[in-house]
Amino acid sequence: MTSDPRLSLRLHFDSGLTFGRGKADLLQGIEEEGSISAAGRRMGMSYRRAWSLVEEMNAHFTSPLVDSSRGGARGGGAQLTDLGRQVLADYRALETLLREQGAEHLARLRAGQRYVST
PANTHER family from the xrefs (predicted)? Predict the structure, then answer.
């Protein structure tokens, strides 16, 4: 069984954090939903898993990416910090760059041609 090659971006930080599409999608979900729980549900993950990923990201940057408030009678919520929005925007920009700049190379790979470095 063969499948077409696809591009994906995964960043490996010296701090040990790996940041890829899943974490970016979680940040985007938090931005859109205003809730870690709702963002996690949207992605098919438990609140515990979503919260764990948020804690991991928050711990590896100079300041938190997500600011959250506890639930209760008025409910809780979460939002991206300025740094969180910047990290998400930079990641999405890198994804776009990879997709655009890699399209020709990927097309050659799909066609079965030999890759020639330029």
Answer: DNA-BINDING TRANSCRIPTIONAL DUAL REGULATOR MODE, TRANSCRIPTIONAL REGULATOR MODE
How many angstroms separate the CA atoms of 25 and 65, rounded? Answer: 13
Entry pTM: 0.85
44: alpha, beta or left? (left if phi > 0; alpha if psi -120 to 50): left
Domains, the chain: 15-110 (1.10.10.10)
Q: Report the alpha-carbon distance of residue 118 to residue 114 in Å, rounded.
A: 13
Torsion of CA 74, 79, 81, 86, to 10 degrees: -170
Residue-wise pLDDT tens digits, 76-93: 799 999 999 999 999 999
Give 60's DSSP letter. Answer: H
